[in-house]
Backbone:
C-alpha cells in the first residue's frame, strides 16, 4: 500500500512538469494525488466498486484543490488536474481496446462501460466539490454582508 501511495505522489508531480505549472506548488500537487488515492483505496476496500471509489477520491481531490487554491491564491485547476491523474482508469481503457482487437466484444463492452462510468464519477466528484465550495463561499459572504 505504501508503494501505491508513493507512486500516486509521483503520478501527480509529473503532470505539473508537463503542464508547466509553477514549480513552487509541486509538493502540494503531489499531496493532492496522495489524498485522492488514499481515499480511493479506503472506499474500494469497503465497496469493491471502482466507480464509487473514484467518485470519493476525486471529491477529496476537489476539496483539497479548493482549499489549497484559497491558501496559495492560485486557480484550483492547478491542483485538481494533476491530482486526478492517479485516479484515471488507464488500464481499464487499455483492456477495452485490447478486447476489441481480440474481437472479444462482450468483455470490451464490460470494460468500456466501466471506463466511462469511472471517468464520469471522476468528473462528477470534481464538479460537486467545486460547486459545494462556491455555494458555501456565497453563504459566508452573504452572512458577512448582513452583519
Residues:
Amino acid at each position: 500500500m505504501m508503494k501505491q501511495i508513493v507512486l500516486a505522489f509521483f503520478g501527480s508531480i509529473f503532470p505539473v512538469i508537463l503542464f508547466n505549472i509553477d514549480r513552487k506548488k509541486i509538493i502540494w500537487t503531489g499531496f493532492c494525488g496522495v489524498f485522492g488515492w488514499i481515499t480511493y483505496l479506503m472506499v474500494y476496500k469497503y465497496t469493491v466498486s471502482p466507480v464509487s471509489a473514484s467518485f470519493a477520491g476525486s471529491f477529496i481531490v476537489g476539496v483539497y484543490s479548493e482549499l489549497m487554491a484559497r491558501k496559495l491564491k492560485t486557480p484550483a485547476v492547478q491542483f485538481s488536474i494533476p491530482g486526478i491523474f492517479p485516479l484515471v482508469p488507464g488500464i481499464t481503457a487499455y483492456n477495452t481496446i485490447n478486447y476489441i482487437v481480440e474481437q472479444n466484444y462482450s468483455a470490451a463492452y464490460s470494460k468500456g462501460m466501466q471506463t466511462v462510468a469511472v471517468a464520469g464519477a471522476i468528473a462528477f466528484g470534481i464538479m460537486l466539490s467545486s460547486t459545494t465550495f462556491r455555494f458555501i463561499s456565497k453563504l459566508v459572504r452573504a452572512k458577512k454582508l448582513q452583519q
Remarks:
- The mean pLDDT is 92.
